[in-house]
Amino acid sequence: xxxxxxxxxxxxxxxxxxxxxxxxxxxxxxxxxxxxxxxxxxxxxxxxxxxxxxxxxxxxxxxxxxxxxxxxxxxxxxxxxxxxxxxxxxxxxxxxxxxxxxxxxxxxxxxxxxxxxxxxxxxxxxxxxxxxxxxxxxxxxxxxxxxxxxxxxxxxxxxxxxxxxxxxxxxxxxxxxxxxxxxxxxxxxxxxxxxxxxxxxxxxxxxxxxxxxxxxxxxxxxxxxxxxxxxxxxxxxxxxxxxxxxxxxxxxxxxxxxxxxxxxxxxxxxxxxxxxxxxxxxxxxxxxxxxxxxxxxxxxxxxxxxxxxxxxxxxxxxxxxxxxxxxxxxxxxxxxxxxxxxxxxxxxxxxxxx
Length: 354
What we know:
By secondary structure, the chain is an alpha/beta fold. About 25% of the residues lie in helices and about 25% in strands. It has 2 domains: about 1-170, VC0802-like (2-Layer Sandwich), CATH 3.30.2130; about 195-350, 3-Layer(aba) Sandwich (Rossmann fold), CATH 3.40.50.150. The strands form 2 sheets. Strands 1, 2, 3, 4, 5, 6, 7, 8 and 9 form a 9-stranded mixed β-sheet that branches. The longest helix has 16 residues, at about 125-140.
């Protein structure tokens, strides 16, 4: 068993967003190391003090962020591994992680704790079996009390098993980072906030830039953009989506003009926005009215009309082959996992190539 320093952290993100999350973590002053499936590992320089920790909770492309506590090896696929996990959990040095977390929020010295477990590959035991094994070991060594309800817990212990190796962490925040408090209204196909933030990361969105989401759905992209200091605006052809967007952006404490419109005929002047980010209708979660190829062609032409020369566009769709622009070229493509599909985020600009 290897015990790691309190400066080791790892972020969990959606499949495909690992490199984008790593870029954002580097901007927060972290030294990025290993990038693995759905995880980005990093080191914080120096001692973890509150003034260094709190900014990390603003990581927008991460689903969650953990202090790295330990790594284990020799975890087999048989049920005998459950006893091994219990024994290893009983040896975990969790109190230093608890001390770090208490710098950010009040936590009982004997906290309620939850366990989250994931594994890759087939095993003769379930995630629930793993949670039980870890809970028994941790309770035995610490006197803390286990709760299966993560919402009740003051502390969350996360375990990943990949092949015969396991990674253990303790969540830095009280709740997962992806669970934004503003996101109360949902719509079919609505993005998880870290995915919306990933589009903005690919755009390299700057404070004060004019950002447009022409098919805004529940307003997640708009809320994330406005929270970054952009001048965001958007709209949708669906009145219920417009109402949801207005509610969510108000909950986020940002002022965003959101209109009822047809994105193929925007009431905006030529060259009036600096960048565009959009989760396009896929005709799966959200139906497209009319011919799909024609819809995309009209939408692309209208987006290009309202974009300033040299502007950038980041679009999420499962059918990037339908995206056609006259003066924009693909600069980057990232395949992600979403809604059981593998859509792509495509970044367009005036230069570059995929």
